[in-house]
Amino acid sequence: ISDCPHPVIAMIHGPCVGGGLEIASRTDIRIADESARFGVPVNRLGLVVAYAELKALLDIVGPAVALEMLLEGRIVGASEAASMRLVNRVVPEAKLESEVYDTAKRIADGAPLAARWHKKFVRRLLEPKSLREDELDESYDCFGTEDFQIGYRAFLEKKKPQFKGR
Q1: Distance CA 20, CA 29 (A)
Q2: Between 20 and 30 A from 118 (CA), which of 29, 74, 109, 154?
């Protein structure tokens, strides 16, 4: 999921614990309804979360909240998960599906190459090593793409862009 070049959205209804939370932590956007519950209650089983799975959670919530979740093993509701930055937003249960599909449509209406680059750039900035010169210059590559030409013309013409290659 983390390596997928396309945006990945998690639609979360009900329990999102243990392995489910590990999967959701790998997605780009997490939208939950009010019934959602989150946690990693492995402390009661004598299990540990592996480095690779823990890294995704740590990147989202930070070390203090990650340790709180792991050490206490508490299950938290959707609003508390939102305050922990574990989910992007919480919506009423009846609106969950439409909110996720509306989000996907807004993403799909954008330039696909820009979405891929943004995913790549955010992931790279989470790495501790310094950016190389070629990486710093990569953001300018967008100016040579068809997506930029389509978006730029649509902006000048005050029209909605129609990107290709979806």
Answers
A1: 15
A2: 154
SS3 call for 161? coil
Please tell me whether residue 16 adopts helix, strand or coil conformation.
strand
Residue 27 near residue 47, CB atoms below 8 Å: no
On whether the pTM is more than 0.85, the answer is yes
Burial status of residue 21 (CB atoms within 10 A of its CB: 0-12, 13-18, 19 or more): buried
Confirm if 33 and 12 have CB atoms less than 8 A apart.
Answer: yes
Partnered with residue 32 across adjacent β-strands are 12, 90
9-55 per-position pLDDT tens digit: 999 999 999 999 999 999 999 999 999 999 999 998 999 999 988 99
Nearest residue to 29 via CA among 2, 1, 9, 11: 9
Amino acid at 43: N
If we measure between CA atoms, which residue out of 44, 71, 66 comes closest to residue 54? Answer: 66
Q: Residue for token digits 């609003």?
A: 79
Instruction: Report the residue count for the chain.
Output: 166
Nearest to residue 139, comparing CAs of 116, 108, 105?
A: 116
Evaluate whether 150 touches 159 at the Cβ level (below 8 Å). no
Q: Rounded to whole angstroms, how far apart are CA atoms 37 and 58?
A: 18
